Amino acid sequence: MTTKTGVADAGNLIITGVVLMLIGDLLFALNDAMGKWLVASFAVGQVLVIRSVGAFIVLGPMILRQGPMALFRVEQKGLQFIRVFMATCDVALFYAAVAYLPLADVMTFYMAGPIYIAALSHFFLGEKIGWRRWLAVLIGFAGVVIALRPSTAMLSLPSLFGLAGSFAFALSLVMSRYLRSTSDTTLVTWQTIAALVTGIVLSIGHWQPATLIDWSGMLLLGIVATCAHLLITRSLKLAPASLLAPLQYTLLLWAIILGYLFFDDIPDAQIIVTAAIIVVAGLFIFHRKNLKETIPAEAVPPDGH
Q1: How do residues 146-160 score in pLDDT, each as one tens digit?
Q2: Angle, alpha carbons 89-140-291 (nearest 5°)
Q3: How far apart (Å, rounded) are the C-alpha atoms in residues 26 and 6?
Q4: DSSP at 239
Q5: Alpha-carbon separation of residue 64 from 68, 70, 134, 232 (angstroms)
Q6: Crossing angle of helices 113-124/269-294, nearest 10°?
Q7: Dihedral sign, CA of 232, 28, 19, 62?
Q8: Is residue 140 within 8 Å of 278, Cβ to Cβ?
């Protein structure tokens, strides 16, 4: 009976983790749609400033509970700075891209994040990947190239913002993984402070008056994003990452739905094909990683695939 109860409890925790991940992804998609709506009328810097203030509404009690001085007791300060810098670039470049491109287009770039992470983890985290996953990485990159729509006009600036932002996103996640002994509160707080400072600099000369609804929307942006981050962090503590990681691709589905509902954006055939290529490549990478981690060591070929 005790064994059955333990199995049932473990199953309930996994289900809870899956639900939290799905809710977190939905909140992130809502955050992205709200951000697109706001940057259509306000400078990216102004949105970053008020968004950061909203984030501290959630972070404030967590900082007090942890103790403010804990924010300064961090490992490897150089890597912490790189992670914060990349996370700030991710947010700023996302808003810069989504101001000009449909939500689904920008999200397609960001769906390549897991593919970048697989490649970067090989070099920075020592996680060996075999030729099958390298092939999937190359296919995923090919999908990104298709999304960039190369032509005689070359690459558009918003597309480059999306590409650079997705790469910064992947780097920030790799750094977060490397610095996993640092508390989530500390990681998110420094990231938020950096976004606040960046927003102040970018908003100089571009600050605009806003209505109460606009201010509330910017504050809500920070609250939603922080809650989404906390939900996903909690989900990863309740269920295996290999199970949860593919659920991140629901962000693309939500981006298409919300883009259509709020902005009348309908992704064209090229974006749909591109998204399919990137998602399939990403899912294959997760699948191979999961196989490697669960099958007996003696059954794994010498090259790690």
Answers
A1: 666 655 444 678 888
A2: 105
A3: 30
A4: S
A5: 6, 10, 44, 22
A6: 40
A7: positive
A8: yes
